[in-house]
Amino acid sequence: MKPPAFDYVRAHDVAHAVSLLAAHGADATPLAGGQSLMPALNFRLASPALLVDLNAIGELSACAVDDDGSLLIGATARHRHVETSSTVARGWPLLAHAMGSVAHVAIRNRGTIGGSLCHADPSAEWPALCIACEAHIELRSARGTRDVAAADFMSGLFTTVRASDELLVRVRFPRWPATRRWGFREVARRRGDFAIAGTACTVDVDAAGACTDARVVVFGVADGPVRASASEAALRGRRPDAAAIRAAAVAALTGLEPRSDAHASSAYRLELVRTLTARALGDALGVPA
Amino acid sequence: MTGPVAIVVLVNGARVEASVEPRLTLADFLRTRLRLTGTHLGCEHGICGACTILLDGQAARACLLLAVQCDGHRVTTVEGLSPPTGLSKLQACFRRHHALQCGFCTPGMVVTAHALLAESPHPTRAQIEDAISGNLCRCTGYIPIVDAIADAARDGTR
Amino acid sequence: MSGETGDVTRGHVGRALARFEDERFLRGEGCFVADFERPDLCHAVVVRSTVAAGRVRAIDASAALALPGVLRVLTHADLGKLGDVRPIPIRVGALEGLERFLQRPLAHERVRYVGEPLAVVIADDPYVAEDGADLVFAEIEPQDPVVTIAGALEGTRLAHPEIGTNVAAQHVAARGDVDAAFARAEYIRRERFTCHRHSSVPLETRGLVAEWDAGSGTLRVWGATKAPFFARRTLATLLGLEERQVEQIELDVGGSFGARGEFYPEDLLVPFAAMQVGRPVKWIEDRRENLIAMNHSREMTCELEIAARRDGTILALRGALAADLGAYARTTGGIVPAKAASFLPGPYAIGHVAIDVRAVVTNKTPCGTCRGPGRYEANFFRERLIDLMCADLGLDPADVRLRNLVPPERMPYATGRLVPYEPPGAYDSGDYPAVCREALERIGYAGLSPQRGCLVDGRWHGVGIACFVDSSGGGPPEQARVRASGSGRFRLDSGASSSGQGQQTTYAQILADVLGVEPSAIDVHLGSTTGLSRGVGTFHGRGIVMGGSAVRRAGEAFVAGLLEEAARRSGAPRDTLAFAAGGVVRAADGTVVLSIDALVGARDSGDAAAAALLDVEASHAQSGATFEYGTQVAHVAIDPGTWEVEVVRFLTVEDCGHVVNPLVVHGQVIGASVQGLGGTLLEEFRYDEHGQMTSGTFADYLLPTSTDFPHVEGYSADHAPSPLNPLGAKGVGEGATGGVGGAVANAVADALRSFGVKIVDLPITPDRLFALVQAARGREGTAVPYFALGASSEFV
């Protein structure tokens, strides 16, 4: 399982990387953490002509709070950095917590948010987390810069709207209101394995404890993460008690046609969605399960 | 096709200059070019952990890194975590607890345990179990390995 | 030869000595075959069929040969230069009929499984060899494969059309009079069980380095293990060489668990390649290949019927089992189905047994032995059926075990002739009920009763028991050779192999006691055919039982030879002399009568008599196998929202007779238990209807990790040492895998007793449990708990 031959260039800054993608298009494959790309190369499932190594570009890995209070995570920021950052833990606790479910430490030391988003594995956590946080993804090319809402970034199984000459530069996570609650539950066969199903949710409550808004995102079950809008509707305007949460969990199944594979049937995935949504919402809202 | 690329890597504290094909993995670079065969290949897709090394002090899979990526970086292998002769305190704990049988996963376990204790000198048992959950062992059933690392943590030194 | 109660033990045997081999492994200085180099090495990659069944029309290697760095591409045509290409023979378990289904090292006109070797590409560099392999194109006309046991038995599609059947072997394993027993039974139940395909999957993949020294006509092969002497014989035969021209050398081995070292196609192809190319050839299997090409195992179906009295006394077992051998009969023949049948009655006094045993071929990876071959499967079938009986009769599973276990007063317990290629056997010794009681005590069986089948803290709890007996040793004698190196050091060569079981230390302990030295004074060499005149290897728990006993005998022969010589030289009666590390002394005052160092000096000056005294080989033969036994108990908790099964606690109490090194024994029990848990709850080789193996990576074939089974315990009992060898030892490497499937399945069934599901198939996964529960709900409506969020059960 040795990689096939390819050309290699180490990009020294964003402009350099962008120009390489412009020049080579689909023949150029960006190398970020390599934790998905390298297995593909070792299995010879991918045969890129040119690897563009992004790991030397300092600005691409930055992770900091912007003036407006939003969190900017650079494309090559490592999962482990997000996991251990006190800034992230304070302001966007869902992200820090969920990182613990991503593979294992040695993978998290290298794997990146940009790589995960562009790889677009339906079982991955980052795409769902970005939607639950209403994040925005910045893509840059020789043609300019564009902003894509997380919900619009994945377009299918292992497919995104990123053009082959575009570089994912960073992801912006809007500042959380103080009243935001969050929950995250996933089921995998073993610790760190890809999720068979998962629910990431953020819920805003008012002073009376009523839910003003919610983002419930189900992942691992379809071609990409799915926003459970029926769940959100079931929660909005209510003071969520156990019955409301159960109803919201059932509502998460609306319109879902989960895939079947070796590890889980479609019916079992539906069952998991119901259980995990209920538990994630229960965690978020402090309703004993 | 790009020809060989010149790299300079610090391996176990020693400066190494080499000329490598872009596709040469770090694992194969260490094993075949530098004859540091302690880093083992068990799967070549990042799951078994037998190839775990430290890159700039952090645990990483050598099978998922290219040698060319390591130009200008610091690599530490199990050989670099061993004293000139004999065993480190951590390694001695492994021996005491029979935390190895065939020895194939052992270097990866030692590197991972070393990285854990460097970051968390007093991990709980659950934290140890979690930390090595990315290293497969087919022989021991893991419990003796967790015992060994817990013992090393109690001892306070590596 | 009967076992001796020798008085030579001076205390190293029985000590929990930390292992000598550990230092090099911990420092990364082990030498596994992938680490091994020879000058001017080249690299081989095997081209494998991607089609499960078909006719090979052509193999086009021209593009590969045109690639710079590719040296040769070998196909069946090249093998043909050896003359008639003979198949790989059966080493053990030769059931009649299997000889028709042997494998040739390269596919010729037909391929019969995905992964079957088609060609070998040899290049200067392993990366280039793989590039070359990608450029070898095989034109195969695909045919419809047979991929299930049911399909094989039905027989419309044939894995070997020219033979005309998929039933490779069939026999009946029987004792007593089952018909009469069933006729008088007060209770009868029949069930169908299945065990899934999974296997050893060691962390090190296979590999070999081979070198042909044309000058001396010697073929050296590095990377041998398990049965190196058989490998030498087989390789010599297949290549038309004399045995003395072939050396099989064992390096460090990354685990075996039954699948490594069983002469594979590559064991011929790689040495052959070395002879053809004239350079040493290295072949290291990658994981993708390993999952498809290293022996699979365990796939078996069993219809089993139990006859009993209403009080739970088991009278008889009757049924039929069918084992999937894959595309070919391997070196391990029909061991798996044969032993499954013979171990179906297990440690119980069941006088009447009749099992129809079939071995079938399919278009899938060939199967061999895997830790506890046939035992794991049989124990699952039988232990489940016993618990189903208990549920029907309202009896406690623990009581029924204790009622039926062979009691100590019935030892040795004759088991009849249940294996066609073995003489009638007998369980040698043991107190089965005592060990069972100890296991129940340790798990706190009585105290767990209130939780069983109940929802506690949001999860359904269950406890399950399995009792097992397993065999070890017997078979051909094992050999050991003791030589004095001088300066107080000794060299031990053993015909046994190591794949991590610690023989470098345990054999030193055994010999140290005989010689009266420290274990560190002994250099242990294992497995290679180069160190001694003959040998066998390590499998079937032979490591200590046969290999260790041979070490003891060789040590005793060494000592006896020197005592005799000292008596002859000094004229003193032998019983006035004693052996001490430096040589032979007068027992009364310790005066040295014969010094080993002096003999070494004489040897080095050419004294042949001295040399002979310092170089002694001996063997241990055993008329039959020893039988280790034990009881395993599992406590599980099942989350009704996700159907995940947590193994809250798993324990084994096992009697393996006298223990040489408790650290090593405990390690084997824990390791075997976790391997069994992985097999029961995580691991599976899945095939689609086209014969494609879809569990092709470690993301699909799930090995247990440190967080999966953190609460596993093992305890040793020593009620009844084996009378069959001088160590009083029984094997321990495999037993604790054997009962895991049964114990866990029983625990799961116990937990879900109110759900109307029947647990009769492995593996047990959340997805499968959910499907069973859904099906039961569909049958029974909402009479069973539907959805529970937490401490209270919610009905939706």
Number of strands of chain C: 29
Give the overall pLDDT of chain C as a whole number: 94
From the alpha carbons, calculate the radius of gyration of chain A and give it in angstroms.
19 Å
Biggest sheet strand line-up of chain C: 3-5-1-12-9-10-11
> Strand share of the residues of chain C?
15-25%
Largest interface: B-C, 54 and 54 residues
Can you tell me the residue ranges of chain C where pLDDT is under 50 for at least 5 consecutive residues? 1-9, 782-796
Structural features, described:
The complex is a heterotrimer of chains A (289), B (158) and C (796). Chain A has helices spanning 14-24, 37-42, 79-84, 86-91, 93-99, 105-108, 113-119, 126-132, 150-153, 229-235, 242-251, 266-285, and strands at residues 7-10, 28-31, 50-53, 63-65, 71-74, 136-141, 144-149, 154-156, 159-160, 167-173, 180-187, 197-205, 211-219, 226-227. With 289 residues, chain A is an alpha+beta fold. Chain A has 3 domains: 7-53, Uridine Diphospho-n-acetylenolpyruvylglucosamine Reductase, domain 2; 58-173, Uridine Diphospho-n-acetylenolpyruvylglucosamine Reductase, domain 3; 185-285, Enolase-like, domain 1 (2-Layer Sandwich), CATH 3.30.390. In chain A, the strands form 4 sheets. Chain A has a 5-stranded antiparallel β-sheet. In chain A, helix 10 runs antiparallel to helix 11 (242-251) and helix 11 runs antiparallel to helix 12 (266-285). The radius of gyration of chain A is 19 Å and the shape is globular. Chain B has 158 residues and is an alpha+beta fold. Chain B has 2 domains: 5-80, Roll (Ubiquitin-like (UB roll)); 89-155, [2Fe-2S]-binding domain (DNA polymerase, domain 1). In chain B, strands 2-1-5-3-4 form a 5-stranded mixed β-sheet, with helices on one face. Chain B is elongated, with a radius of gyration of 16 Å. In chain C, the strands form 7 sheets. A 7-stranded mixed β-sheet of chain C has the order 3-5-1-12-9-10-11, with helices on both faces. In chain C, strand 20 (478-486) and strand 21 (489-494) form a beta hairpin. Chains in contact: A-B, A-C, B-C. The interface between B and C is large, with 54 and 54 residues.
